[in-house]
Design brief:
Length: about 500
């Protein structure tokens, strides 16, 4: 796995050499980036089962988290999800004040890669904010991909929110969505006996990846560029400027928690799952974007996840990812009424997701995959995309009269708890919490009333969605685990339990 290219000092040195006009803005943004990533790390200290953690104690508005060799003390309110801490946020390890999350990580878990990942996240977040010192104008909805580029800070909970290992500053500016670039993919022709999947034997390769692939596999033939594209919230997924299918590429870079490739299972499953989901949701206000074709190059490893792509039906103009909506005050200002909005969201998003769960599929409906269409400030329809993270319960599908497709990988499960966790962690513990926090912060709505409206919308759903503690991915514990791709969970009180 490539190592992170730059900590904050290294990023500053690269800027001085290549883009000195951004230096002042970068220096201004760096304290806020330190605080934002530190606050995400404090969420982990507050809730996750971390290595070396012994006890947590709350007293006089502070949390005292005792590890095997030190105690970390911080204001309890600093570990509040989906809020922006003030620059200068300080924690104490023993009597030592710390403002840099990488310093805290190195102290708590020395000799791990997480320290470098955190430092890279801080640097890239500061670079993103330096390039966007003031709020952007809301783009015209007909411009493919532009709306998604409003998101500056990345993952709202993960301390590696902007980690991109292996990318230089120049790479970030050329390819990262928050920098609003346009570029072209490379079309690489593949011998037909080395091709797997339903797409024609032409690999759409991200330009960051293409040079490396041509060096490693000389039997690939460069067939020139595509038309210009824009990166979406996920850097490796792009929208052609002149319209047409979105393209998910493989980019051998760790972003937040994983290296973003396209697995052979995804190549196999996408078109099959698309047909099934369109059938299951036909009577619901959810449009599932079809994965129309996919392919991978066959190397000595078989169909190779580093040499693969997937084509997906384009996002309808004006559909807003919920993660973008919650993080953009100008979009929140367009909402007609926060309580009506939440009631409508229950009707077109949360209740239908619970229905799909009952029918046998848990959609991983987080803020990047889940979009809504607004009409005069009110949600009228949900758009869902990206089928790689869902879970499928074959018995429920059969019981509801649906044929179970041949699926590869870890999508099938007979465990109803795993199925419910997949949906609840994304839709409730992330999307609902972030949306409600945003409506409370920017529209002065009462969070308790919003949660009550959501509980009402889920009245006919599996009662556990309203009563059980909400599962949240323990992202920091996962990064520190021997197998960082194995899901680990922490749980939070369910605000809907009071209304169940």
């Amino acid at each position: 796995m490539p190592h992170p290219t730059a900590d904050p000092a290294g990023t500053r040195a690269q800027l001085a050499a290549t883009h000195p006009s951004l230096l002042d803005a970068y220096d201004t943004a760096l304290p806020g980036a330190h605080a934002a990533v530190l606050a995400r790390l404090l969420l982990a200290l507050e809730h996750e089962p971390l290595p070396g953690l012994l006890t947590r104690h709350h007293h006089d508005g502070h949390t005292h988290t005792r590890f095997t060799h030190t105690t970390v003390t911080y204001p309890t309110t600093a570990a509040t999800a989906f809020t922006e801490p003030a620059p200068g946020l300080t924690v104490h390890a023993g009597h030592t004040p710390i403002t840099d999350p990488a310093t805290l990580t190195a102290l708590l878990w020395p000799a791990t890669t997480l320290t470098a990942e955190i430092a890279n996240s801080v640097a890239n977040l500061a670079l993103a904010r330096a390039a966007n010192p003031t709020p952007r104008q809301i783009p015209h909805p007909a411009e493919p991909g532009r709306l998604e580029q409003l998101l500056i800070d990345g993952h709202p909970l993960h301390p590696c929110c902007r980690t991109r290992t292996g990318m230089t500053v120049a790479d970030q500016l050329a390819y990262a969505p928050e920098h609003q670039p346009t570029f072209t993919l490379r079309r690489l022709r593949v011998p037909t006996d080395r091709w797997y999947g339903t797409a024609p034997p032409i690999l759409y390769a991200h330009p960051w990846q293409a040079t490396r692939l041509l060096d490693d596999y000389p039997w690939l033939t460069d067939d020139g560029p595509t038309t210009p594209v824009r990166p979406l919230m996920s850097l490796r997924t792009v929208a052609p400027i002149d319209g047409g299918p979105h393209i998910k590429t493989a980019v051998d870079i760790q972003m937040t928690s994983a290296v973003r490739t396209v697995s052979p299972a995804a190549v196999h499953n996408g078109p099959r799952l698309s047909h099934l989901l369109r059938t299951i949701t036909a009577d619901l206000p959810i449009d599932v974007l079809t994965e129309t074709a996919a392919g991978a190059v066959i190397t000595e490893h078989g169909p190779d996840r580093r040499l693969s792509h997937l084509l997906r039906q384009p996002t309808p103009p004006g559909a807003i990812p919920l993660g973008v909506l919650a993080a953009t005050p100008a979009l929140l200002a367009r909402i007609d009424n926060p309580y009506t909005f939440m009631q409508d969201l229950g009707t077109v998003l949360f209740a239908p997701l619970a229905t799909v769960l009952d029918r046998g599929i848990a959609l991983e409906a987080h803020g990047q995959n889940t979009l809504i269409v607004l009409d005069h400030g009110r949600p009228i329809r949900t758009v869902y995309r990206d089928l790689g993270g869902i879970r499928v319960h074959p018995h429920r599908l059969t019981a509801t009269g649906h044929d179970v497709p041949d699926l590869h990988g870890d999508l099938p499960t007979d465990d109803p708890t795993e199925l419910r966790t997949k949906l609840a962690a994304a839709a409730l513990a992330t999307v609902a919490r972030q949306t409600i926090t945003a409506l409370a912060t920017h529209r002065h709505a009462d969070p308790a009333r919003l949660w009550r409206l959501l509980a009402t919308a889920l009245h006919h759903a599996d009662p556990a969605l309203r009563t059980d503690p909400l599962p949240v991915k323990a992202t920091t514990a996962m990064r520190l685990a021997p197998d960082p791709l194995h899901d680990r969970w922490t749980h939070l009180p369910n605000p809907m339990a009071a209304y169940a």
